[in-house]
Design goal:
By secondary structure, this protein is an alpha/beta fold. It is built from 9 helices and 14 strands. The radius of gyration is 18 Å and the shape is globular. Bound molecules: zinc ion. The site of zinc ion (ZN) has 4 residues, from loops.
């Protein structure tokens, strides 16, 4: 499966899936129809379907216009805000996408309805797992987010992680506050800074890279648990309680940027 990137708004990624040598593609989370239409026109490829990870407008705002252009199936969570969904997906479902099959994983935390899609060697994580971070807890609990991240972390280490936003540099700068001695993290931040300076994307990453550097996947590591305990002023147990402290810490740390 070939995966192309269409940028939207300031930092959203709309992923376009299509087998090589096929003139059909499926788009994931089209928050804006305009860049998708432009991409389809430029490549001469045809839209065959739409996949949705969660109901937020920056992931769904372009659906109405795109299905106005071509009546394609829309697969996503069951949610009142998503009237265009033609097939409601649940955890454990398998979705045929142009000759490949994607596994549907329920990954609540950022929202209650959030889904991730795991394919052969890649996973689409929307606003659950970001490169170097995780989504804000808008509807779900820290316990749910921790469970969701642990499911994604259990995928094979080489799995490429396609998330919904380019937040990596800010995420890693925060991660370094949590784990200043993490050498893999320092190294990654340096590489990401070079990429961003050149205007390049930092996505996809891999599950292995996230396991080594993403504090939200490292809530069982002594260094991260100690940082959470220092931050909260009392001893915090590893796991979702550590995640809750780190998430709150990051909410105040990046508050002006809404991440
Ligand atoms: Zn979202």
């Amino acid at each position: 499966m070939k995966i192309d990137r269409v940028g939207a708004f300031t930092d959203n990624y709309i992923w376009v899936l299509g087998p090589p040598n096929d003139d059909h593609v499926v788009v994931v989370d089209p928050g804006d129809a305009t860049p998708v239409r432009r991409w389809l026109k430029r490549t001469g490829l045809q839209l065959a379907g739409i996949l949705i990870t969660h109901h937020h407008a920056d992931h769904t705002g372009g659906i109405a216009e795109l299905i106005g252009d071509a009546r394609v199936p829309v697969l996503g969570p069951s949610r009142a805000e998503l009237p265009f969904v033609t097939r409601e997906l649940r955890d454990g479902d398998r979705v045929p996408v142009l000759g490949t099959e994607l596994a549907v994983l329920s990954t609540p935390g950022h929202t209650r309805d959030h889904l991730s899609f795991a394919g052969d060697g890649f996973v689409l994580t929307g606003d659950t797992l970001f490169a170097g971070g995780c989504g804000r807890l808008f509807e779900g609990t820290a316990e749910q987010m921790h469970g969701s991240l642990m499911r994604l972390a259990a995928l094979p280490g080489a799995t490429r992680v396609y998330c919904g936003h380019e937040y990596t540099e800010a995420n890693l700068r925060f991660a370094l506050e949590v784990e200043p001695e993490n050498l893999a993290l320092r190294d990654r931040l340096q590489r990401v800074r070079v990429l961003r300076h050149d205007g390049s994307t930092t996505v996809p990453s891999t599950v292995d890279e996230e396991l080594a550097t993403n504090p939200f996947l490292r809530c069982g590591e002594a260094t991260v648990v100690a940082a959470a305990s220092r931050q909260s002023g009392h001893r915090v147990p590893p796991g979702h309680e550590t995640l809750a402290v780190i998430r709150r810490w990051k909410d105040s740390w990046t508050a002006p940027y809404g991440r």
